[in-house]
Structures are given as structure tokens and as C-alpha cells.
Amino acid sequence: xxxxxxxxASEDTFPLPRYIKERYGPFxxxxxxxxxxxxxxxxxxxxxxxxxxxxxxxxxxxxxVVSRSREDRWLMDFLRAHHDGQLIGAxxxxxxxxxxxxxxxxGIDDEELRRYRQDTLRFGRQKVLVLSGSGNIxxxxxIFSSPRVEAWIITAREGQENLRSQLxxxxxxxxxxxxxxxxxxxxxxxxxxxxxRQEHGIRTLLCEGxxxxxxxxxxxxxxxEDFRTMSLQVLGxxxxxxxxxxxxxxxxxxxxxxxxxxxxxxxxxxxPYHAFFRLRYEGPRTFQD
Length: 289
Hints:
By secondary structure, this protein is an alpha/beta fold. The protein has one domain (4-8, 17-25, 34-235): Dihydrofolate Reductase, subunit A, CATH 3.40.430.10. Helix content is 26%, strand content 23%. The protein contains eight helices and ten strands. The protein has a ten-stranded mixed beta sheet with strand order 1-9-10-8-2-7-3-4-5-6. A hairpin with a 3-residue loop joins strand 9 and strand 10. The termini are far apart. 38% of the residues are buried.
């Protein structure tokens, strides 16, 4: 692996083993500005034109197709190791299928990082939270039976009823933690974030997509950091009419005065095709001419 450090202004608060620290540099999070919710990071890959997925490719919409990078895969595990929980949208769960068609469990593959999370950080089994307001999820997917992760579902009132009915039909009542936050099929993201911190001890949360979910978090000012892999290719528009290749930031809109800024915290690269940014949310800014 050829991960190179260009710049790093991170806090040095995590007890990284020497061999990991030599590879990445110091790593840590600041004290959260809002103690009522988790410190929330995101992790995405995008091309030079900002697009994040070849969505028209059946079962091949995940970031691996865009990044094609061993370093990006290691950094994904590195970030997963440092967060209490991971969050994905139901669309991401449905779209990212493995060759067997049972999906991924989003567990840490790197054995060194898995041991570091377990033995040094004492974080325990990974918690992967799937967000679905409707509850229309295939509960036979690998994530819901994997021994590597503990799968939760965040939903709204109608979704909760749907999920409980599915679990009853499968003879699996009470086997998956279901958190209902919102009426109908609309999840209240702010209330969900507060619930995770205050009642379930989730101090740090990693959002892994997709772009629509990330955009909603950004719109609600719930993103604290953005870990961004830039793959030095141009994805362009979809080759199939009616199927868009989404941008990494969803459909949120801002005026020049309200558009949020991020501060550079670290920059790594892997020659010759990839750059890895760590960015910290600062919100709208004004600059002197």
C-alpha cells in the first residue's frame, strides 16, 4: 500500500499503534460542540466532476467501482474502527449487492484494524445502522445475520409496524433493534441523532451514504467532518437515459451566502490516481475582499 501523508493538523487523541501511526499520522476528534448528539463524520468517494456512482451498473454502484484503490479500502476500515456506529441509507443497502446477491455486512476487513478496535479502543462489535422511513428492507440480507456486526434500523412509525410484521413472519421477533423516530414514513434526523447519543451511547457516528442521506444531514447541520476520497477520473453523465449518476452531496441547494465551508484537516495521496481529504465543517463564512 502506498498511502502518503501531505498535511495533517489532526488532534492526537487516539492511541494508534506505532505501525498504524507511521502509515497515517496522528488522529483524533475535537470536543463536540453539541453534547446532545454524536460527533458525525461522513466518508465518500467521488470523481473529479463530483459524481459518486455509476448508478446504472446493476449491483455495482458502490464506491469501489469509482475508487479502485487499496488505500481507499484501508482508510474505510480505519474510519470504521474509530466510530461507535456506522449509518447507511436503505437505498445504499439495496444497491450495493455482492456477487451472491445477499449484500455486504459493512464490517472491517483489515485484521490489524479490527484487533486495534477491539483490543485497544474496546469499542466492541460494530454497530451498523440502516435508515429507512418505510421499513421496506430485505431482512434476509447478510448484514442482519452477520456475526461481525450488530445491525440496527432507524425508521418512523409506519416503518416500525412494517418491520415488526416482517420479523414476525420470519420468526425473528426481537432479533433486530428498531428505533422509531418520526411520524408516517418520515424519519426526524435531528431527533434520531439525539436519541442515538442520549439513550444508546453512540458518541461518534460515521455516515457512509448514500448522497441523498448525506445531503439531508448536511442540510440539518449534522455533519462535523467529511472524509473524501477523490478518484482522478471524470464519471460524466449516465449511459442510460433516466438514470442519473448522483453527485456526492445529494440535492441540497444553497445561496452564495449560506453555502457551507469546510476546513482542511489532513491530506493524503496515493500515486498516481487518488487523493484523500479530511475536512471539518465550519458553515457559511464571509471573506474580506
